[in-house]
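Here comes my example:
=====
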Amino acid sequence: MPNKCDLLETCGFFNKFNSNLEVINQRWIRLYCENLDHSELCERKKIRNQTGKPPADNMAPTGVLM
């Protein structure tokens, strides 16, 4: 998946909420998941890189809990 987050396939948030209207309206998928450069700002990705474990599936890329 060129130009997309390298963790997209295993991201619990993406897999659970990629068709959720609120998520689509917030444009989180487009901004964080489908933009490789911007994906480095994803709070989920930061936590996963720091701890080696994925955060809760309901944590958005902004760090907000759904």
Observations:
- Residues 43-51 form the longest helix (9 residues).
- Helices lie at 12-17, 21-26, 28-33, 43-51.
- The mean pLDDT is 91.
